[in-house]
Design goal:
The protein is built from twelve helices and 22 strands. By secondary structure, it is an alpha+beta fold. A nine-stranded mixed β-sheet has the order 4-2-3-5-11-10-9-8-7. Strands 12, 13, 14, 15, 16, 19, 20, 21 and 22 form a nine-stranded mixed β-sheet that branches. The chain has a two-stranded antiparallel ribbon with strand order 1-6.
C-alpha cells in the first residue's frame, strides 16, 4: 500500500516495536496505549472524544499507533466487499464505513492487533472505526479484562454492574450516583490483571428521557439544547402515536429519545479507579417487580463470556472480511479472545459476592437502587 504520507508495512509483514520516543497519545491506566502521529488538532480532539481520555506523553511502546494522512493512495485496484463496507488491494485492507454509516477510508491490519498495530486514517474522521474494540483487544492481550459494565463506589465499596446489552448497567449507575455514589465508568470498564481493581474511561453516558423523568435532578445537569431535544422528540412521538399508520415512524423516534452527556456534567463525584468488591448481574424481565438474590459468581462469568463475544461482533465481522481478503493472515489474539476472556472472568469473579438483579424496563430508578442497596455493601 502506498499513502500520500509515510507508508505503513505490508499486511504480511511483522511490525517493529521499538521504544517510544516522546510519542504523544492516550494511555488507558497503564493497561494499553495509543500513539497518535501527524494528527490535526481536529483529529486529535475527535480521538480524545471517542475514547474519553486526555492526551498525554507516552513513556512506553504503544500498543496501537494511529497515523493520519491527507489522502490514502492505494496500490492497485480496490476490490469492494459488501455494499461499500470495506475493500482490499494486494497489500492493504480498508474499512470504508464508519459510525452512523459515514464514509471513511481507514487501513486496519487486523493480523497485527496486539503486536504493534498501526492504523492509517484519512484526516477529518468524526471517529476512528472499531477503535474501542481494537483497544479492548490490546488490553486483553496485556492480561487485563475489558468488561461491558458500569462501575461506581457506594459507601466506600466498589460495585460493578454487568450483563447483556440494555440490561440496566447505566440505570444502576445513575440511580446510585443520585444518592451520592461516585462514578468510575460506564459502557466499558477494565479489571486490573489481578482482578482487584476496576478502572473506567469517561466516555459519554447515554441518558434517556425516562431516566430524566425518573430522576428529576438529572434535568438540571443537561444543557438547554439537550433538554429541548428530549422535549421535541417526546412531543413528536405523542403526535405520531395518534396515527396508527405511522407506527414505524413512532418507533424510530422512540429510539432517538436520548442524549449523550459527558460524565463530568452528570456526576458530582468521580473516581478513575476503585476496588472491585461487589458484582451485580443485571437483567430485564417481563414483570413489574425488582428482585435481587445471590448468584454464583462463576455462573456470571460463564454467561458474560458470551456477552463479550456479542459486543465484539462488529470487529469480528470486519476481521472475517479481512480473512477473505488475506486468507493466510491470522490474528492470534482475536482468534483466542473468547478463551482468554473466559479464563480471566472465572479467575477475577471467583471470590466476589455476586447478586442477580431482575427488573422491568423501564424501571423506576429509585426503586432499582433501593432493592440493590442492601447488597451493595456486602463483603465476601
Amino acid at each position: 500500500m502506498r499513502v500520500a504520507e509515510p507508508s505503513t508495512p505490508r499486511a504480511a509483514e511483522a511490525p517493529e516495536r521499538g521504544p517510544a520516543t516522546n510519542a504523544r497519545g492516550f494511555d488507558l491506566h497503564g493497561l494499553a496505549s495509543i500513539a497518535v502521529v501527524d494528527a490535526s488538532a481536529a483529529d486529535l480532539e475527535a480521538v480524545a472524544r471517542q475514547l474519553g481520555l486526555r492526551e498525554t506523553l507516552l513513556d512506553r511502546t504503544p500498543d496501537i499507533t494511529l497515523r493520519f494522512v491527507d489522502r490514502l493512495e492505494l496500490s492497485g485496484d480496490l476490490r469492494l466487499l459488501g455494499l461499500g463496507e470495506a475493500g482490499y488491494t494486494d497489500d492493504a485492507f480498508v474499512v470504508l464505513r464508519g459510525r452512523h454509516k459515514s464514509r471513511v477510508k481507514v487501513v486496519v491490519p487486523f493480523d497485527r492487533i496486539g503486536t504493534g498495530c498501526e492504523i492509517v486514517c484519512e484526516r477529518g474522521l468524526p471517529a476512528v472505526p472499531l477503535l474501542v474494540p481494537i483497544l479492548n483487544l490490546a488490553v486483553l492481550g496485556n492480561g487485563a479484562l475489558p468488561l461491558h459494565a458500569s462501575a461506581f463506589v457506594h459507601r466506600g465499596r466498589g460495585c460493578v454492574a454487568t450483563g447483556w446489552t440494555k440490561g440496566g448497567k447505566t440505570e444502576a449507575l445513575l440511580a446510585f450516583a443520585a444518592a451520592g455514589a461516585a462514578y468510575v465508568g460506564d459502557e466499558w470498564i477494565y479489571l486490573s490483571r489481578d482482578g482487584a481493581c476496576v478502572y473506567g474511561i469517561p466516555e459519554p453516558v447515554r441518558v434517556w428521557d425516562w431516566h430524566v423523568n425518573s430522576l428529576p435532578g438529572l434535568r438540571r445537569r443537561l444543557g438547554r439544547s439537550e433538554r429541548m431535544r428530549l422535549r421535541a422528540l417526546a412531543g413528536a412521538q405523542r403526535v405520531l402515536a395518534t396515527t396508527r399508520r405511522l407506527d414505524r415512524a413512532s418507533a424510530l423516534v422512540a429510539r432517538q429519545r436520548h442524549v449523550d452527556v459527558e460524565p463530568a456534567r452528570l456526576f458530582s463525584l468521580r473516581r478513575a479507579s476503585a476496588r472491585f468488591d461487589t458484582l451485580f448481574f443485571v437483567l430485564t424481565h417481563d414483570s413489574p417487580r425488582v428482585t435481587v438474590e445471590p448468584i454464583d459468581s462463576l455462573e456470571v462469568a460463564r454467561r458474560m463470556s458470551f456477552s463479550l463475544a456479542y459486543e465484539r461482533r462488529d470487529l469480528v465481522a470486519s476481521y472475517t472480511q479481512f480473512r477473505f481478503a488475506f486468507p493466510d493472515a491470522v490474528s492470534e489474539l482475536l482468534e483466542s479472545a473468547g478463551e482468554r476472556e473466559r479464563g480471566l472472568l472465572e479467575r477475577m469473579f471467583a471470590d466476589k459476592p455476586a447478586y442477580l438483579v431482575r427488573h422491568p424496563y423501564p424501571v423506576p430508578l429509585t426503586e432499582l437502587r433501593d432493592a440493590m442497596t442492601l447488597y451493595a455493601g456486602v463483603s465476601a
